[in-house]
Amino acid sequence: MKKIAEVVINSPAAQLGKVFHYRVPESLTGNIKVGQVVSIPFGRSNRPVEGFVVGFTETSEFKELKEIGSAPDQEDSIKRELVDIAFWMAEEYMCSLSDCLRLMLPPAGVSRQREKAGFVALQKDRDEILKLINSKRIRGSRQIEVLNYLISSRQSGMTSEIVRKTGADYGTLRSLRQKGLIEIREDYIDKSPLKDKVIEKTYPFHPNRMQKEAIDKISEYIRREKQGEFLIHGVTGSGKTEVYLQLISEVLKVGRQAIVLVPEISLTPQMIQRFVGRFGDKVAVLHSRLSDGERKDQWYRIKENKVDVVVGARSAVFAPFSRPGIIIIDEEHEHTYKSEKTPKYHARDIARKRCEIENCVLVLGSATPSVETYNSALEGRLNLIEMPERVNNYVLPPVDIVDMRKELEDGNKSIFSRSLYNAISENIGNNNQTILFLNRRGYSSFVLCRTCGYVARCRNCNISLTYHLHGDRLVCHYCGYSRGNFKACPSCGSEHIRHFGIGTQKLEEEVKKHFPTATVLRMDMDTTSRKNSHEEILGRFRDENINILIGTQMIAKGHDFPNVTLVGVISADLMLNIEDFRSGERAFQLLTQVAGRAGRAEKEGRVIIQTYEVDNFSIQTARRQDYGEFYRQEIILRDELKYPPFCDIVSIMVTGVDQTKVRQTAEEISCVIKKELQDHGEEITVLDAVPAPISKIKNRYRWRIVIKCRISRELREKLSRILREQSVGAQKACNISLDVNPLNML
Ligand code: ADP
Ligand code: ZN
Ligand code: ZN
User: Fold this and answer.
1) Which atom of ligand 1 is nearest to the CA of 245?
2) Closest ligand (CA of 456)
3) What is the pLDDT of residues 450-484, one digit of tens each?
4) Has residue 113 got a pLDDT over 50?
5) How remote is the CA of residue 536 from the centroid of ligand 1, in Å?
């Protein structure tokens, strides 16, 4: 009997998101397995389209099945376990299987054929070559240049590059080959972003007591190849990364591979160096700045087991390793682990599922774990490992909170409180460095006419425009729309225009005004758009001992600056007053992180937080760096208001250009859901459809329905069906999307 393949078409079109049956032709039997990418004839015209084989069946209710056309590329197949994860994702996030499967493949569109080129490699080791050169047994200066080049670049290099850099020609290379000193061969070009970097090898530290406990506990699972999940709750500098490195060594010993996820923004050279320093060229790196070609190349290196460790952002959780033994998620609380595009997955959920399917260890690490994760740990669903002390015993810096209401009462209208002002002056005088943190870029947050109350808004989004000094323009941070600044009100003609709120540009201006002798750098999205500009700014800050670094949350992470002894938070209020139930948690995390930038070395540090809400518990607990207390207060609120982890939140967003249709559609969906879920037994709250906090983006109106519930399989099925019916219904003008436990409530 001929086998029948279940095939999913590789297409984002929703109506194609089901499983089709195709016969496996005689010529391909044995060649086709689950996860295979195949070409199949589709539709009436039988045009060839790409599909994924997701399973097999012996019988089909359909007659007249077509045959699979061909299986073009064996190399591109998706391993069975990842196909299983795609099935799980499609159900979990209520999205199409095809969208999920596509995540498991390297970027499409770029050529599959990797480029080959000529390579030259030394055939003798370094000392021998140096001996030959020193004893003058090799004379030609070009030949010597080539050998020196090869020695300095780890024994091998691309022919074209060697020719260009040393001035040698192919004759030179041929004579070196004749002497048996080099080999010339064709090979795939290594597009690894690390190939030119010389990274010093590092060796494991002797672990301290806390580290040893963590390593022993987790290694036990690794050695026995047992599934397990751990949360390492450790302050910054407690040695978590060193624990990760030693765990990876254990994983490699049992012949398995390691996946390390870090937030995009921490994928800095320093971070990558720590992994490459330990595991050399066995490391692949995946981040968003790679070109598609580079990404594809990394994907093949992983797939062909040329590397054992991958360090990457969110999507690296799908790395096609054959036998992953550990998945590590550093800074597990970070929001970048949640995809904002469909499928709206969370890398932590995927990692957990993958560990379950592939029987490996999941390690989450954070100084400020997400409330959901910490709650799971306390309730025993995962193992909690506490690492409360810093390796080098540097004390955490004292944090002062300044009441800005009091400053105003006392007649200080400046954006600097007196104590921050004095601390900065003193720091400049002592030649120590200062970091000033403000979580808003641009100059001012909104522009208002004092005569008529007109506020400059984006014409595509319902959001006020931010003034930017550069080009004297008003800019929308959501869609990029910009217009020239105005001196007179476009509405009433009055010239009483005022700028409210401060952004990093304005802060920079104020710093220069108040501290004219200080050297200043600013780091935000506007100053870091070029490749590497991020590193350049931080490099200059360190190397040129710049007095003051101003920045948004970009500066909150990662780097150790031994000379930074003062961190000032200009306005903590900006983080608190966001219409999102996670804003308190986010504020605590950011403040804790920023505070950690001060006093990272021998010098003592100090942190000053300015706010109008001194009593806010996120600020107070961040001041004491007291995660436990923050958690205890936050979890009470979550319980009272029924927010995660006490329930799941399903957000259904309806968008479209026609405001009335968007509204009608949203109201109808809410109505249908309410009706259908009425007798669903468990506690479910379906909130009325309302405009999202940002009610229009890029000319599309946005309405939202929030459902608070314990999400279950049955509920998922119901919701999927309702949404499918609504999508094909009358209101084609609208787009309906769904997000389970969204991290962004705007
Ligand atoms: P975390 O990841 O928790 O912030 P790290 O692993 O980066 O902490 O460790 C902080 C610093 O201490 C790093 O410079 C690291 O090289 C060093 N370190 C870590 N473990 C040890 C150890 N056992 N002995 C000495 N130094 C260590
Ligand atoms: Zn006006
Ligand atoms: Zn806009």
Assistant:
1) 6
2) 2
3) 888 888 888 887 778 888 887 888 888 777 788 88
4) no
5) 24
Q: How far is it, in rounded angstroms, from Cα 518 to Cα 526?
A: 22
Residue nearest to atom 25 of ligand 1 (CA): 205
**Ligand 1 pocket member 208 (CB < 6 A):** yes
Sign of the CA dihedral with 672 first, then 674, 679, and 684 last: positive
What is the C-alpha separation between 551 and 564, in angstroms, rounded? Answer: 14
Longest dimension (CA), the chain: 92
Question: What does the buried/exposed string (b/e) look like for 407-428 if buried means 16 or more CB atoms within 10 Å of the residue's CB?
Answer: beeeeeeebbbeebbebbeebb
Pocket test for ligand 1, best of 268, 391, 392, 394 (most atoms within 8 A of CB): 391
Does the Cβ of 273 fall within 6 Å of ligand 1?
A: no
SS3 704: strand
**Cβ proximity of 24 and 3 under 8 Å:** yes
Pocket test of ligand 1: the residue of 209, 213, 241 to mutate, having most ligand atoms within 8 Å of its CB, is 241
Distance 656 CA to ligand 3 centre (A): 15
- Spacing of C-alpha 619 from chain mean position: 26
202 lines ligand 1 (CB under 6 A): no
Tell me: the pLDDT tens digits for 405-431?
A: 999 899 998 899 999 999 999 999 999
379: exposed, middle or buried (C-beta count within 10 Å: 0-12, 13-18, 19+)? exposed
Whole-prediction pTM value? 0.83
Quote the ligand 1 centre to 585 CA distance (angstroms).
Answer: 26
Q: What is the pLDDT of residues 521-535, one digit of tens each?
A: 998 888 777 767 777
Residue 277 near ligand 1, beta carbon < 6 Å: no
Q: Is the CB of 14 under 6 A from ligand 1?
A: no
Whether the CB-CB separation of 309 and 279 falls below 8 Å is answered with yes
Nearest CA owner, ligand 1 atom 18: 239
Taking only the tens place, the pLDDT of each residue in 541-597 is 988 989 999 998 888 775 678 888 999 999 888 777 666 788 899 999 999 988 877
Tell me the C-alpha distance between 371 and 343, whole Å: 23
Cα(222) to centroid of ligand 1, in Å? Answer: 22
The pair phi, psi for residue 79, each rounded to 5°, is -70, 155
**Among the ranges given (218-227, 385-394, 648-657), the one the predictor scored with the smallest mean pLDDT:** 385-394
Neighbouring residues of 419: CB distance < 8 A, sequence distance ≥ 6 = 400, 402, 608
Residue 364 has pLDDT above 50, yes or no: yes
Q: What is the mean pLDDT of the chain?
A: 86
Nearest CA to ligand 1 atom 23: 207
